[in-house]
Amino acid sequence: MEFDLSKIKIEELVVTYGLQVVYALVALIIGWIIVGFISSLIKKALKKGVPDPALSNFLSSIIGVLLKVLLFIVVASIVGIDTTSFAAIIGAAGLAIGLALQGSLSNFAGGVLIILLKPYRIGEFIEAKGMLGTVKEIQIFYTLLNTTDNKLIIIPNGELSNSPITNYSREPIRRVDITIGIGYGDDIKKAKEIMSKSANAHPLVLKEGEQKAPSNPIIVVTSLGDSSVNIAVRSWAKTPDYWAVHNDLIEELKYKMDEAGIEIPFPQRTVWMKNDN
Hints:
Layout: H1 5-49, H2 53-79, H3 83-100, H4 102-117, E1 125-128, E2 131-138, E3 142-146, E4 152-156, H5 157-161, E5 165-167, E6 173-182, H6 188-201, E7 205-206, E8 218-224, E9 229-238, H7 242-259
Antiparallel strand pairs: 1-2, 1-5, 2-3, 3-4, 6-9, 7-9, 8-9
C-alpha cells in the first residue's frame, strides 16, 4: 500500500496551524470584547476618581492602547510567533516612527506635561502664542481654544509647553487699571475725587479685605504726558467681573468728567501755513 506523504504533511499542517489560527481568532474576538469592557470600566472609574476630565480621558486612552497591544502579543504567541522577535520588531518600528514623527512626539510630550503640571484647565481664559481664548479641550497633541467671537484656535501642545502662558482665570480676583488723561489746566484733586467716588460706588468693586482684596480703589497720577496729566484708578474685582467693572468705570468716568467740566484731551496739531506773498 502506498501513502501520499505530501498529502499527509498538508493535513498535518492544516490540523496543527489551522487550529492555532482558529484559537488565535477566537482569542482575538473574546480579548477585544474583554478589553473594551475593561476600558469602559477604567474610563468610568477615572471620571469619578480624577476631577480633571482632560487627565481622565488621556489616561483611559493610554490604558486602552496598552491593553490592545498586550492582546495582540498574546494572539501572536498563540499563533506561534516568537514574542521576543515580535517585541524587537515593535521596538524597531517604534524607533522608525519616532524619527519620522518628531514633531508629533514633541506635541505628545507637551500634552503630558500640560496635563500633569496644569498651567491651564478646561474653561479657563488664557493667552498663549499671541492668541487669547477659553480652553475648550486639552487633547494629547493639541489644545483647543475658543475666542471671544467664537473662533476655534488649535495650538500644538509642544509649542504651548515651551512658551509663556498667561492664565487670566486662575486667580480669584484681578486688579482693574484704568487711566484717564486730563488737561494741564484742570483741577487734579477734583478729578481724583470723581474717580475715587465712581470706583467706590460700583457694586462689583471690592473693598479692602473682601475676597482678600489688598486695598480699596487707589487713585494715582502716573505720568505727565505731552498733552495731558494721566491719572489711574486701580481697583480690585472678582475675576469673572473684570470686564464689567472695566467697561462700566470707563463710561461712568467720561460722564462724570464732562459734568464737572474737566477736559479729556485728545491729540491735536497746529499747522502754520507760510504765505510767500
